Amino acid sequence: MKSILLLLSTLFIFMSTGMAQSSVVKIGIPALLHGRANLNYEYVLNEKLSLNLRAGAQFPRNFPVNSDVLQDGTEDFRIETGKWRAFGFTPSLRIYFGKNNPAPQGFYVSPYIAVNRNSINFDMEYDDGNNQNIDANFKVGLTGVGGGVMIGNQWVINESFVIDFNYFGLGYGVQNIGMKFTSSDTSVDYEQVKEDLEDELENTNNTGNISEIEVLDDGIRVKASAPSLQFRFSLSLGYMF
Fold first, then answer.
1. How far is it, in rounded angstroms, from Cα 178 to Cα 5?
2. Which end of the chain, C or N, has fewer beta carbons within 10 A?
C-alpha cells in the first residue's frame, strides 16, 4: 500500500509540473447521477502517450437496506440503516493510435492501477438467547487494490472541449475487508455474538475468505479478503488547455 501511495504522489507531482496547452481536466458524468464525483487530469507526453490521474469520491449517502443483512431463518442480526462513504485513485498510461489523431484524441488503450476505500456504517439490532432488540453498530471497511486495461476514444472539439468515452475496461483486484460489531449494551455476550455470526456466515456460504473472527473487550472484529473481477465504463466531459 505504501508503494502504491508513493507512486500516486510521484505521478501527481510529475503531471502537475507541465500544465500548459497539453493538459486536460475532465469530470465524469454517469457518476454524478449516483452521487459520486470523478475528476480526471490528463497530461500529454507526446503524440502517442499521455498520463491520466482519476480521483473519485462517493458523497455520503444512505446504503440501501432491504431487511435482514444476514438471513438463515433465525434473524439474529437486523440492519436498520446504513451510511456509505468511498474514495479512490486510478492512475493510468494512455497509448493513442492513429496518425491523424495525435494525443489526446482518438482511440486509446490504457493500462491502469486502482486503489479504493469504501466504508459503511450500519445501525442494527441483535437478538441473543436471552435479550431481544439490542441496539448495535456494524462497521464495514473495504480497501481494494487492482489493475487492468481500458479501451476508449477521446474527441477534442474546437481545440478545447473534450469528450472521453471509455467504453470497456477489464481488471482484477483484491478487496481486504474489515468488519466490527459493537454495542453500548453492557449485557451483550460477545462470545455468543461470535457463535451467532459464525452460524449466520456459514449458512449464507460466506466463510470462504474470512481469515479471522476475534472477540474484543468492546465487540467483535472480522477480517476477510475477496478477489474481484472489475468491469469499467465511463463518460467524461472536459476542457483542454
1. 20
2. N
Residue 92: which residues within 8 A CB-CB, separation 6 or more?
51, 52, 53, 54, 110, 111, 112, 113, 150
Residue 2 — φ and ψ, nearest 5°? -60, -40
Distance CA 45, CA 197 (A): 53
Q: Is 35 left (phi over 0), alpha (psi -120 to 50) or beta?
A: left
Query: What predicted TM-score, i.e. pTM, was given to this entire model?
Result: 0.76
**Residues of the chain below pLDDT 50:** 2-8, 10-11, 14-20, 67-74, 207
- Residue 100 CA to residue 48 CA, distance in Å, equals 11
Q: What's the one-letter identity of residue 56?
A: G
Task: Tell me the per-residue pLDDT of 58-82, one tens digit each, with 9 for 90 and over.
Answer: 887 787 665 444 444 445 677 777 8
Nearest-Å Rg of the Cα atoms of the chain is 22
